[in-house]
Design goal:
CATH architecture of the largest domain: Up-down Bundle
Strand content: under 5%
Largest sheet: 2 strands, antiparallel
Helix content: 55-70%
CATH superfamily of the largest domain: Cytochrome Bc1 Complex, Chain C
Radius of gyration: 35 Å
Distance between the termini: 155 Å
CATH class of the largest domain: Mainly Alpha
Length: about 500
C-alpha cells in the first residue's frame, strides 16, 4: 500500500481568544511607541494634578488678598479663622445700622481690647498689698504709656457693661430672644453676669481707697444670702474682711477663671447665632417677609461696616483715655472709711434697694426673681409673629412710652416717700424687720402692679406680648432710675441731696 502524501497546511491566523495564563502578548513597535509617548490630554491631566504650593500658616488668620468673585469671598470667610464666626452671606436688611446699632460687634471688639491691654498691665503688677498700689503709682508715672493703657482698660471695661446691657435691650425690643433663640438668650444673660463679675474683681486690683471700700460694700451684699451667706463671703474674701488674701483671690478670678469662661461662652454664643439662622430680619409692623430676600456676601459688605465701626470707637476711646485718666485715690486704709461708702456704679441700683427693703428682700429675693424672669422670657413670650419688629406692634410703641413715663414718675416718688414719709419699722416696732421692712412694703408694690396689669389687660385690651413688653421696659427704666439716684443723689450718710447741693464727703 502506498501512503497518501499529506497536504501542506497553511498557517492559521492567531486566535482572537484571551491568551492563556503565563503567555505574553507580543508588543509591536507601534504600540510600544504609543505607550511610551503620552497623549497631549494625558500630559495636561498630569500637569493639573500636581500639588499646589501650601499657603503660609498665617493666612488662616490674615487674608492674603481680596477675591474678585462672590464665590471666592465666601470661601475666604469659611477658610479664615477670624472671619469664620460670620455666615458667608447675610440679609441686606440686617446691615442697617439702626437695627442692631453694632452693639454685639462692639462688645466683641471691647472684649479683645480688654484682653490685649490686660496682658500688658499684668506685666507690671504684683497681686499683694501694699505692692499692688505701688505698682499703680509706678505704672502711672514711670512706665511708658502705662497711664494711657490703664485708662484704655478702665474705660473699655465700664463701656462693656453698657454695651452688653444695651445689646440685650435691643434683642428684647426686636423679639430676638424667642424660639429658636431661647438658649442663646440664656447664654447672653450668663455672659452679662460674667462681664459684671470681671469688672467687680478688677475693681479691687488698684488697692486704693475707692476700690477697697467699694468692694467692702459690694461683698457685704453676699452675706445676706440665707444660710450660706457668711460662708460664701468668707470664701470670696479669704477671711472676715477685705485683705491681701481678697486681692489675690480677685486677681486669680480676674485674669483666669472669668476671662476663660467669657471666651468659651462668647464662642458658643457666636456659633449659636449662626445655628439659629443668623440675625432676625428687620421688618415694619405688620410686614410679611417673602422668600426672595436679598442677601449679600459678608466680605466686603459686613466686614467693612465692622472695621469702620471699630476704628471709630477706637478713636473715641483713645481720645477719652487721653482726656480722662483712670481714677486712683490714696492707698487703701481699713481704718478710715469714706462717707458715703458706695458700691461700684453698676451696683448702685442694688445698693439703693437696700435702703428701702430688708437685705434679704433687696439683695436676694428681688434680684433672683428678676434673673429667673429674664431667663424664662423665651418661654413666657414664645409667639414669633412680630420677631424683627421694634416694639412688636404700632401700639407697642405707645405702651413703651407709657412704661418709661410711669417709671420715671413713680420710681422717684416712691424713693422720696420712703425717705421722708413712710416709716414701716417705726409704725410696727414689734414686728420682725423682714416683715415690716420687707414683706409689707413689697406687698404694697405688688398690689399696685396687679392693679396696673388689670388696667392694661381689661381697659386697654392689650395682648400678652404687649404686656410683657410693657413690664420689661417699666422695670428696666425703674432700675436705671434707682442707679442714677444712687450715683448722683446720695450723699453723706446716704441721705438724699440735689447734685448741685451735695456736701463734701466726710470720713468715719
Amino acid at each position: 500500500m502506498t501512503s497518501t502524501p499529506e497536504k501542506p497546511t497553511s498557517p492559521q491566523p492567531p486566535s482572537p481568544s484571551r491568551p492563556s495564563a503565563g503567555s505574553k502578548t507580543p508588543t509591536t513597535p507601534a504600540k510600544a511607541k504609543a505607550k511610551a509617548t503620552p497623549t497631549a490630554k494625558t500630559a495636561n491631566h498630569k500637569t493639573t494634578a500636581q500639588p499646589q504650593p501650601s499657603r503660609p500658616w498665617w493666612s488662616r488668620w490674615i487674608p492674603q488678598g481680596m477675591p474678585d468673585d462672590d464665590r471666592g469671598r465666601m470661601r475666604m470667610v469659611v477658610d479664615n479663622i477670624v472671619l469664620h464666626i460670620h455666615p458667608t452671606k447675610v440679609p441686606k436688611r440686617t446691615l442697617r445700622f439702626t437695627y442692631t446699632w453694632g452693639l454685639g460687634g462692639l462688645s466683641a471688639f471691647l472684649l479683645v481690647l480688654l484682653i490685649s491691654t490686660g496682658v500688658l498691665l499684668e506685666m507690671h503688677y504684683t497681686p499683694s498689698a501694699p505692692q499692688a498700689y505701688l505698682d499703680m503709682l509706678q505704672l502711672e508715672s514711670q512706665v511708658p504709656f502705662g497711664s494711657f493703657i490703664r485708662a484704655i482698660h478702665h474705660w473699655a471695661a465700664n463701656l462693656l457693661i453698657v454695651t452688653v446691657t444695651l445689646h440685650m435691650l435691643r434683642v428684647f425690643l426686636t423679639g430676638a430672644y424667642k424660639p429658636p433663640r431661647g438658649t442663646n438668650w440664656v447664654v447672653g444673660i450668663l455672659l452679662f453676669l460674667l462681664v459684671v463679675g470681671a469688672n467687680f474683681t478688677g475693681y479691687l486690683l488698684p488697692w486704693d481707697q475707692l476700690a477697697y471700700w467699694a468692694i467692702t460694700v459690694g461683698t457685704g451684699i453676699i452675706s445676706y444670702v440665707p444660710f450660706i451667706g457668711d460662708t460664701l463671703s468668707r470664701l470670696l474674701l479669704g477671711g472676715s474682711e477685705v485683705s491681701g488674701r481678697t486681692l489675690l483671690n480677685f486677681y486669680t478670678l480676674h485674669i483666669s477663671v472669668i476671662p476663660i469662661s467669657i471666651v468659651l461662652l462668647a464662642s458658643y454664643h457666636f456659633w449659636r447665632i449662626r445655628k439659629d439662622g443668623g440675625l432676625t430680619i428687620p421688618k415694619a409692623p405688620g410686614e410679611v417677609l417673602g422668600r426672595g430676600l436679598e442677601r449679600v456676601t459678608t466680605i466686603p459688605n459686613l466686614v467693612r461696616c465692622e472695621v469702620v465701626y471699630a476704628l471709630i470707637w477706637s478713636a473715641l476711646l483713645v481720645g477719652w483715655a487721653m482726656w480722662v485718666p483712670a481714677p486712683l485715690e490714696g492707698i487703701a486704709n481699713p481704718n478710715v472709711s469714706p462717707n458715703p461708702a458706695k458700691a461700684p456704679w453698676y451696683f448702685a441700683g442694688l445698693q439703693e434697694l437696700l435702703l428701702h427693703f430688708h437685705p434679704v428682700i433687696a439683695a436676694i429675693f428681688i434680684p433672683t426673681v428678676a434673673l429667673i424672669a429674664l431667663a424664662a422670657l423665651p418661654w413666657l413670650d414664645p409667639f414669633p409673629e412680630n420677631v424683627g419688629t421694634y416694639f412688636r406692634t404700632r401700639r407697642g410703641r405707645y405702651l413703651s412710652l407709657m412704661a418709661v413715663g410711669l417709671a420715671l414718675l413713680l420710681t422717684p416718688a416712691w424713693v422720696a416717700a420712703d425717705a421722708f414719709l413712710l416709716d414701716w419699722v417705726g409704725w410696727l416696732p414689734d414686728w420682725p424687720t423682714w416683715i415690716s421692712n420687707g414683706i409689707l412694703p413689697l406687698a404694697f408694690l405688688v398690689a399696685g402692679a396687679v392693679l396696673l396689669h388689670s388696667f392694661l389687660r381689661l381697659t386697654l385690651k392689650t395682648t400678652h406680648e404687649e404686656r410683657v413688653l410693657f413690664w420689661f421696659i417699666f422695670f428696666f427704666t425703674a432700675f436705671v432710675v434707682l442707679t442714677i439716684i444712687g450715683i448722683f443723689f446720695r450723699g453723706p450718710n446716704m441721705d438724699l441731696y440735689w447734685p448741685w447741693a451735695m456736701p463734701t464727703g466726710t470720713h468715719g
